[in-house]
Amino acid sequence: MSKFHVSTTVNGDTVEYLCDPRETLLDCLRDKLNLTGAKEGCGTGDCGACSVTVDGRLVCSCLMLGVEAEGKQIETVEGISDGDVLHPLQKNFIEHAALQCGVCTPGVLVAAKSLLEKNPNPTEEEARYWLAGNLCRCTGYDKIIRAVMDTAAELREAS
Amino acid sequence: MDYHSPASFAEASALAANATGVTRFLAGGTDVLVQLRSELVTPDTLIDIKKINGVSDITRIADGSWTLGVAATGAEMSEHAELVSDWPGVVEAMDLIGSTQVQGRATLTGNLCNASPAADSVPAMVAAGVTVTVTGPDGTREVAVEDIPTAPGRTSLAKGELISALNIPARGANGGDAYLRFIPRTEMDIAVVGVGVNLRLDGDTIAEARVSLGAVAPTVLLVDECAKAIIGTTLDDAALETLAAAASAACNPINDKRGTVEFRTEVAGVLTKRAAKTAYARAKGEQA
Amino acid sequence: MALDDRKSDFKFVGTRPDRPDGLDKVTGRAKFGADAYAPGMLHGAILRSPHAHARIISIDTSRAEAHKDVKAVVTRVDFSDKVEFKPGLEGEFWNVLENVMAGEKALYDGHAVAAIAATSALAARDALKLIEVEYEVLPHVTDVDKAMEPDAPVIREGAADYSVPEGMHPNVVRYHESGHGDVEAGFAEADLVIEDSFVTEATHQGYIEPHACLATLGNDGKGELWCTTQGHWIAQKTCAALLGIETSQLRVTASEIGGGFGGKTTVFIEPVALALSRKANRPVKIVMNRSEVFRATGPTASASMDVKIGMKKDGTITAAQGVFRLQGGAFPGAPGDMTAMCAFAPYNLTNVRQVGYDVMSNRPKQAAYRAPGAPMGAFAVESVLDELCNKLGLDPVDVRLKNAAHEGTKASYGPRYERIGLVETLEAAKAHPHYSAPLKPGQGRGISCGFWFNHGGETSVSLALSEDGSAQLMVGTPDIGGSRASMALMAAEVLGIPYENIRVTVADTATLGYNDVSHGSRVTYASGLATIKAARSAVEKLCERAAAKWGIPADAVKWENGHAVPSGPNAGDFDPMPLADITADMGSTGGPISGHFEATPEGAGVSFGTHIVDAEVDPETGKTSVTRYTVIQDAGKAIHPDYVEGQYQGGAAQGIGWALNEEYVYGDNGRLQNSIFLDYRIPVASDLPMIDTVIVEVPNPGHPFGVRGVGETGIVPPLAAIANAVSKAAGVRMRQLPMSPPRILAALKEDG
């Protein structure tokens, strides 16, 4: 089976890989680029643990083929912080104890960042619906939502 | 699996026409990849249509009708204020599919071609009178949305044919549409019942109506009895009761992990009333 | 534990610092089960039975073995033949072996029958199709009541242990009966007796991280295993037995764990990866997909229950009895005994009797799920109590207070309670604004109590001081929900050095003595107790060194706030000596200073909670929304309150899922119908309200700081609390879980 050569940009870095057309973007990020921050929780787009943005659009990387990434701009959880300066969401997730096991956290952070970029002043309900595709089995979402809402307020104040 | 990304629909059609084994077209991929991953369907040929020019465009034509590219995503539709204003029912039906992440990829065309009786966007499109342009080896043809799915997982598209555009009619004055579905959670579920209602008023009286039901039969239904129940009425209580009864009577559902025959039949009536009220309010220009 | 050992004025304990592993977990660098890779690594995949019950006539692996990308194929013959079958739970190694790789029969849809290691994950998956299995399909049964009927297919002869009375179906494999008093006399005294039957469906723990491991094993019997687990020592012990190697030759490292809730307390893919690795002589990685997780790993048991309670007009319970039948898949282990023992545990009862059955069926081997067995029983008992309150016109909190167990009460399951906090949670419920808040039309309010034993278990902890005065703490209990932070807080409290100066590591099996699994709500209790004791043993040595420097006896030195100080005016006049001054030259004053503790602590201290929930039901569709939720639970002492609240909230959310939408759905063919998250519906963010918490602190006499485990009790009350709220909102009593919209709508129709 012939493989495809893909050249793409991940967190600002130009990267290349060879992939089978059946391999997902998630497979390629994890197994070819060693970016294991995005997780496979379901492989069917139901859990959001593999969330990344592609050309600024929030997607499940398990629902996109690796070969489709050619020429795209991809952002993953590994690209959220600015060097050693954490994104306010990352800081607040730690401070608010918005994670227990932490396996959904990368996907939640990518999705929440995408929400705040699109809607800096979400209601609690809007935040909950935006994140409905990010399953968390540990927290009951309470502290996650509080961390997102507090970050939104903090970012609004700073801007 | 062979992967192709043709530059035109003619090329895509030729690839499909000449392919052997199982062929799938890839737009948003939110069904194709799930089937691939679960080994339900491993295509021999996968044709990615997103490199074709204009497939993500959402365009209003001079007569007020709309042409949607086959790769326009749910998110792009929801962000298009004019489209939302014209066809809120079609847009909300699309918007209900999956998560924010899925909205970033999923398309109306994909939802239609997956041919699930529970597809959310299809009852809304049927109610709205949406048609699709089909490109095949013999050129193009225009087909009503309700004529695409023929059975669960099957469409009327012939070998080498694919949908190359979606056409939504002009909204016109005094019209409104709505889509409602029932799911056990608030998000992320497949519809147990779906209802699309599209109507036009003459004053307070319903002059035209189309009512479509999903997930209650092997394919999405366009229910004339429902339309008749409300045409000529002001959607008074009696009309609503007739409407609900007509909707329930049209159901031919199954028992499955998502719902029972009795539940689907009952709730189809309930949701049809609710969707009709919303469409009516929208036609009157009220916020709903 | 001596009382003078107890501490109640805390400097660090009870604060809410950032967790030590926070940075790793918000940047994506934390390594979970599937995040490990090794040079030369192969990928494993497992072939699973599509049949609920079938004899395996033959397995032909020759075509798979001949494939160029395939490096090893294993079936049952590649595992130890020394693992002995015994009845009940005595032969648990055999049960696990039979579960991880089928022997003569496939026992459920998804049961592993063969496995492959190949050069890529895709190649392994493709090569599975080359294995040919010939099955003789047998009649199957997946329902607990049907599995007990005389004509039910027999899952396995001889699996019943000594506890099962004569004449029962071979699928009944364990039996429990307990209680005290005379229930018939008690029912005769009652003004009202209600008897009712209840059913709950199996649910899955639903951790977001699927099982994953990376295994290396050579034919020299030495191996390495990296896996996502709640207990790497149990994984070590079990894998060694199943592979026929010595336990100590297998080193197991626990990855970061992406949720467990009891479901990662055993092994599934780990022995398979080791067997493949031994055969291929290369590292093998196996990662389950979600469908495999649902089909072949630990759902909880499903239950069918009959409960009868008698009450006087003043709310006094005169007698209570329950029969609890639990189905736990094709192996012994369904916690019918736990259900029975927990069901009436919150109440001070004169007459109580409970019976539990462990029944086998053609479903996956049940695994623990947060207070295993307790939520089902509470659902039945607390529903009947609610109905009694309704009929007698009594306040449900008052009735529970009137009958609440307290210190000295003889528990329904036998022992007398030490100091417990049930009454305090009920009083807090009564005083909480939620309990008196007005309800909107269409809403109902429900409450329920819940109980869990909590657990101690084998525990080893080691603490070493560094020359600069920092400390490294090695624990053996995987950190499922912030336990590193709690351990560091407790160590800081004893040592008197800053929380940040303590590095907590979850040590591998080669580095520390045996540790029981992170289960039974035992981590903060038992690893915490061991941490305190290990730190105290280090402090003793610190005091000895300071005494030697000062030239005074060791017992003339005490430890205060991170410093050695003379124990009194007679001990001498010396300036306090900070910890770092002692460790700076410890190499020349007697050698490295460390502290250790190994024990099986017995004083876990039982736990109670009371939940209040408001629910709204759409009468036209039967859809339920939970509009307000409050968890009140006794933590003994909250070490890191954020993570205590998190446990309460998480337990409640899982309970909401179980109550409303989660269930295993089997078709007539015995196949699981909903093996993905699309149709196995766990709560999503938009389904839930904020979940309020009240931490009650009634110190556990069995822990130096008063800790009681908090992880499990939180899932016990929600099922009943929501059922009680729904029954009020909808006006019909719901006796079957989940209370899905079709079930509620059908109940409403039936009610007219």
Care to describe what's here?
The complex is a heterotrimer of chains A (159), B (288) and C (752). With 159 residues, chain A is of the alpha+beta class. Chain A has helices at 25-32, 88-95, 105-118, 124-130, 142-158, and strands spanning 4-10, 13-19, 51-54, 57-60, 73-75. Chain A has a five-stranded mixed β-sheet, with helices on both faces. In chain A, a hairpin with a 2-residue loop joins strand 3 and strand 4 (57-60). The longest helix of chain A is centred in the last third of the chain and has 17 residues, at 142-158. The termini of chain A are far apart. Chain B is α+β, with helices and mostly antiparallel strands. Chain B has a five-stranded antiparallel β-sheet with strand order 4-5-10-6-7. Chain B has a four-stranded antiparallel β-sheet with strand order 11-12-13-14, with helices on both faces. In chain B, a hairpin with a 5-residue loop joins strand 4 (58-60) and strand 5 (66-68). The longest helix of chain B is centred in the C-terminal third of the chain and has 23 residues, at 261-283. The mean pLDDT of chain B is 97. Among the domains of chain C are: 389-454 and 605-751, Aldehyde oxidase/xanthine dehydrogenase, molybdopterin binding domain (Aldehyde Oxidoreductase, domain 4, 2-Layer Sandwich); 457-599, Aldehyde Oxidoreductase, domain 4 (2-Layer Sandwich), CATH 3.30.365.10. Helix content of chain C is 28%, strand content 23%. Chain C has 20 helices and 26 strands. In chain C, the strands form six sheets. Chain C has a seven-stranded mixed β-sheet with strand order 3-5-1-12-9-10-11, sandwiched between helices. In chain C, helix 18 links the parallel strand 25 and strand 26. The longest helix of chain C has 28 residues, at 523-550. The radius of gyration of chain C is 27 Å and the shape is globular. The termini of chain C are far apart. The model of chain C has no long low-confidence stretch (mean pLDDT 97). Chains in contact: A-B, A-C, B-C. Chains A and C meet through helix 1, helix 2, helix 3, helix 4 and helix 5 of A and helix 1 and helix 18 of C.
